[in-house]
Amino acid sequence: VGSEMCIRDRSEESIKSYKSVFEIPGLKDIVHQIYTHDSLVNEYKSDGETFLLNTKFIPELNLFLFVEAKM
Fold it and tell me: In this structure, are strands 39-46 and 15-18 parallel, antiparallel, or unpaired?
């Protein structure tokens, strides 16, 4: 992961910006799993809602792609 990144979380109410996945509520408990696997599907809870998170490392770009869906 590069030193600069912008993480966008789009919800019905607003768009939030984060500088780190460690700032996203609910992700701090699974972040270590994300960065130790090339691909991962996991669930997490944030603000009383459950999300399905799919992550994939893209070596050509040296970045992790995060895709989530509200369950």
Answer: unpaired
